[in-house]
Amino acid sequence: MKKSALILALTSVGIASAVQASQTEDFTVQHLVKINTLHSAALSHNGKQLVYAIKKIDSKGKANSDLYIQDLSEEKSTVKQLTSGSGTEHSVAFSADDKTLYFLADRHGTNQLYALSLSGGEAIQVSDLPLDIEGFKLSLDSKQVVFNLRVFPDCKDLACSKTKFVAEEKRKSTGREYKQLMVRHWDTWGDHARSHLFVAQLNGEKISTATDVTAGLDTDTPPKPFSGMEEVTFTPDGKHVVYTAKAPSKDQAWNTNYDLWQVSVSGGEVVNLTKANKAWDSQPTYSADGRYLAYFAMTKPGFEADRYRIMLRDTVTGQEKEVAPLWDRSPSAMTFGKDNRTLYVTAQDVGQVTIFEVNTQFGDVKTLFDDGSNSIVGVTDDKIIFNHKSLDKPGDLHRINLDGQGTQRLTNVNKENLAKIKFGDFEQFSFKGWNNEEVYGYWIKPTNYQVGKQYPIAFLVHGGPQGSFGNSFSSRWNAQLWAGAGYGVVMIDFHGSTGYGQAFTDSITKDWGGKPLEDLQKGLAAVTQQQQWLDGNRTCALGGSYGGYMMNWIQGNWSDGFNCLVNHAGLFDMRSMYYVTEELWFPEHEFGGTYEDNKDLYEKFNPVNYVENWKTPMLVIHGEQDFRVPYGQGLAAFSAMQRKGIPSELLIYPDENHWILTPDNLEQWYAKVLGWMDRWTEKK
């Protein structure tokens, strides 16, 4: 008998649902590392075609990425694969007439620009530069392109930089020499090269050289490693490039004064457009008619989590204003609508990343879509194309009408991968936290949930600390993996989290171990009372970065709160941390100055000062390439526990940074973490 016939037959006796349930699979890390990833989405200028790349992992663990095009003009849009070469095509852009697709690919040893005619034929290599192209942007008329290349500032051409890179690789001595900070960043030691912008003509000839338009400002452009070509744009008339960068200075490691700079496409003098603002300026965005320049601006120098204000500059009159000054959210991306007056932006918002419409004339802000985590791909005359994720959905493309109605899913890139996967049900909850203020969080039921049973708790604490564990799907800390392992998951956006107003975010500054700890304590008590299926007597807390700091802080200040702890890349000694981290502006803002200037506050919230109270079993995990929180912090926490006889284990990764990015290592990470939790929560 066929399976479908068997289920149909069993329906009559009322047990079909049990058979169907047995066919589902709990979500595991083995599923996670094979999830298809949609990236590099681009919308044609006429709004009729959508191109995107899908990264797939084969049975041998090898990644490959190809481009697809989707016709949006039809009611039931058709999809066609455009490329099938080995490697990864990425960073896609349509030409002005929508007839050609430009993208980056490494097909012959370096990352170069390619052009693919949408009327047929093979992709043509457009650039033949001796260095990798890290990103590009087209001018509005597609007659020019600006590249991002890593070069040595003292070189007069690209061949010189290539020669220097090769010589550096072959150098027999290994010492690195520096005269000022920053000497390293995130996971990379400085090699004295810089990211510069180069402009070239797109005239049908292969590009073998280009003009360095940022030679007059010897600094990394755009800022690395978390920013890209969203920080670079041509002016609509194609005469200038505007980009984000810091001015060269001795205080690179302790200032956040990124400015917008304008330079001619032929190079020459660089003009600072935001000289008056000593805080962070970002993401220059022009209206298509060239009338307005919009950008984001913070107002607090030295603070990386200040609220981004939307600034609008009239390029004709020179007048500038803040748009929606009373709107208490910090936007992360924006694009102009076809009317050149309306902005469509995304911002964290009470556990979501919401799409908003902003009227630049009156400052009105309208919520369009507020479920899950969303990023805008493009805007047509009547629709917004966006990527949507949630706690139980990886990224897929959708469209919605400009009035926020009529949401339609466009892709389902993991239909086969997730066909049998069962995710845990989830819900947002709230409670009264510090100062009786409303604090939000999420709980997720284990996938094997049964009414009347209780389940151990995985208590996830996010990093940042100005961050959020919201309604999104992560490739690293994926909350559904604990649900799939039989845990009830609890995540709380404590005071200091983002998406709840700037005052809420600011409240953690100079109070790292105060308000957040109180929120976590009250939140755990509240959720276990609200949800009786959560077993408050079998709990394990875990977190990374600031979340790892909180594990160390819990050890000394809430030592009877949990059965076990997992500390990933956590801060242990705030004094030594200040002197070894790379972005000094961060601790100097969070603790009110340098360690020397404000020693008492650093020591007040220093986990090492409370080691005498430590007693909870803890697993410590760290990457040796972590320059944000160097691995000595994790090693010190482990040493302290070993010396005190506290059950503890150490997992160290020589090839990982602040995050675990390698699939094999991620599988090991989850196996170790879940095994540790099972042991101490006595999960059956």
Protein described:
This protein has 684 residues and is α+β, with helices and mostly antiparallel strands. It is built from 13 helices and 40 strands. A hairpin with a 5-residue loop joins strand 24 (331-336) and strand 25. Helix 1 (3-11) packs antiparallel against helix 2 (16-22). It is globular, with a radius of gyration of 26 Å.
In short:
The chain has about 675 residues and is of the alpha+beta class. It is about 20% helix and about 35% strand. The two termini are about 35 Å apart.
Overall strand count: 40
The biggest sheet amounts to: 8 strands, mixed
The proportion of residues in beta strands is 25-35%
- The whole-number mean of residue pLDDT values reads 95
Strand order of the largest sheet: 33-34-36-35-37-38-39-40
What does the secondary structure layout of this molecule look like, with pairings?
Blueprint: H1 3-11, H2 16-22, E1 25-26, H3 29-32, E2 37-43, E3 49-57, E4 63-71, E5 79-81, E6 89-94, E7 100-106, E8 111-117, E9 124-125, E10 133-138, E11 144-151, H4 158-170, E12 184-185, E13 188-189, E14 194-201, E15 211-212, E16 232-234, E17 240-246, E18 258-264, E19 270-272, E20 281-286, E21 292-297, E22 309-314, E23 320-323, E24 331-336, E25 342-349, E26 352-359, E27 365-369, E28 373-379, E29 383-390, E30 393-401, E31 408-409, E32 421-422, E33 426-432, E34 438-444, E35 455-461, H5 479-484, E36 488-493, H6 502-506, H7 515-530, E37 534-544, H8 546-557, E38 564-568, H9 574-580, H10 585-590, H11 599-604, E39 618-623, H12 632-644, E40 648-653, H13 663-681
Parallel strand pairs: 1-32, 35-36, 35-37, 37-38, 38-39, 39-40
Antiparallel strand pairs: 2-3, 3-4, 4-5, 6-7, 7-8, 8-9, 10-11, 11-14, 12-13, 14-15, 16-17, 17-18, 18-19, 20-21, 21-22, 22-23, 24-25, 25-26, 26-27, 28-29, 29-30, 30-31, 33-34, 34-36
